[in-house]
Write a structure and sequence with these properties.
about 400 residues; 4 helices
Length: about 400
């Protein structure tokens, strides 16, 4: 009995091993040909089907070359209207109506407010009546003087009576002139009931509303008009830097002085219109030690508003046969400034450089580049010295011939 049980257990064990072997054979048969799973094999790590390392990073480059550019400086400034006028009430009265749309442009002489003119019109009528009465008195005095003069010739009146008649005639003539002046003043006040724009420009919100009493003891401010085209930019520079700037500009004898000014908005975008440098204050501010500068820019679309902070770029000198690169291409480290250059076999090289001032949005390279190098300008964060990259030319080098960095 024991021997029969042992034979049965051995047979069951052999059957289990046979089943495992069969299953293993089926698994191997399901593998695709060539997928052995061995390292280095077709299906192993590093093989063609295993998705090896990532492709080289794509970067954009420019090929630098020598060119003549303007050396520029940038000064912070604030926009200011070229003319500002306060619209004020010149007569006393109640505001009946606002006659303009707030925030629009108006011409000089355009009506802005209407003040109740009934009292002023009555004053004009009273002045006209006073003139008529004065003229009647003057007429009577003139007739009296003529009769006295005739009687005096016949020695029928004294010299004293003649003098009195003459004085009366002159007095009534003066009364007529005074009454006419009062009438003229009343008519002027009546005209002031319609408040008009003193200058052409942009008129802001109304400072008074309908029903307000204005002109009571003072010239009430009713609105403000600002002339915005053209518009000024107030700049300042230290007296030391200003002297250096003037000496540099005066030393450029081989070229005409470029007084054109370029304006950079707070968003970093360059204003589409070019301005001009106007003048400098003749004295230094004792509180700040700075010299005031001014530039003027056209503002036909009213895109520039007083009070905005801007940056003005001025050309102060010229650099001949210089190499320039965009500011974003120049990096800095503890060892100094450098640019990334695409070298042989598309390997990235860190090239130390020294900058020699700005030319618009570009750096002037004083040392480090000879011309012809492929300087990386975009994708710098993906490029590492010694790594292989996929260089493509930048769509726009952004290096205009005038060196001002203006983008069209």
């Amino acid at each position: 009995m024991f021997s029969n049980l042992s034979r049965h257990s051995v047979a069951q064990t052999l059957w289990i091993f046979s089943l495992i072997a069969a299953l293993g054979g089926c698994g191997g048969a399901d593998k695709a040909p060539g997928e052995s799973g061995k390292p280095g094999g077709p299906g192993g790590p590093g093989g063609p089907g295993g998705g090896g390392g990532p492709p080289p990073a794509e970067v954009e480059f420019i090929t630098v070359d020598h060119t003549d550019v303007a050396r520029t400086i940038e000064l912070p400034g604030r926009l200011r209207a070229i003319r500002v006028a306060q619209v004020r009430a010149r007569v006393e009265g109640i505001v009946e109506k606002r006659l303009y749309v707030e925030g629009t442009d108006v011409n000089a002489g355009a009506p802005l407010f209407q003040i109740d003119a009934r009292t002023l019109a009555v004053n004009v009528d009273a002045a006209k009546a006073a003139v008529a009465r004065a003229r009647a008195d003057a007429f009577l005095a003139e007739q009296t003087l003529e009769r006295v003069q005739n009687l005096f010739k016949e020695s029928q009146v004294s010299k004293q009576e003649l003098d009195q008649a003459t004085a009366r005639q002159q007095q009534t003539a003066a009364d007529v002139a005074a009454a006419q002046a009062v009438r003229a003043r009343a008519e002027i006040d009546l005209n002031y009931a319609t408040v008009t724009a003193p200058i052409s420009g942009h008129v802001g919100r109304a400072l008074v509303t309908e029903g307000a009493l204005v002109g009571k003891g003072e010239a009430t401010s009713m609105a403000t008009i600002e002339q915005l085209d053209p518009i000024w930019v107030d700049l300042s520079q230290s007296s030391r830097d200003f002297l250096r700037l003037r000496e540099t500009v005066q030393s450029q004898t081989h070229r005409p002085n470029d007084t054109a000014a370029h304006l950079m908005l707070e968003t970093g975008r360059e204003y589409q219109h070019t301005g001009k440098f106007l003048f400098t204050d003749l004295i230094v501010d004792p509180n700040t030690g700075s010299v005031g500068l001014h530039a003027e820019f056209p503002n036909p679309s009213r895109a520039l508003l007083p009070g905005q902070f801007v940056t003005v770029r001025l050309a102060v000198a010229f650099a001949d046969n210089a190499i320039v690169v965009p500011q974003r291409a120049v990096q800095a480290s503890t060892q100094g400034q450098f640019v990334l250059v695409v070298g042989a076999e598309n390997k990235v090289i860190s090239q130390p450089v020294k900058t020699g001032g700005l030319s618009g949005t570009n750096w002037i390279i004083a040392e480090g580049l000879k011309g012809g190098e492929k300087v990386i300008v975009d994708g710098i964060q993906k490029a590492r010295p010694g790594s292989v990259v996929n260089p493509v030319p930048a769509p726009s080098q952004g290096l205009p011939a005038n060196g001002t960095g203006k983008e069209h």
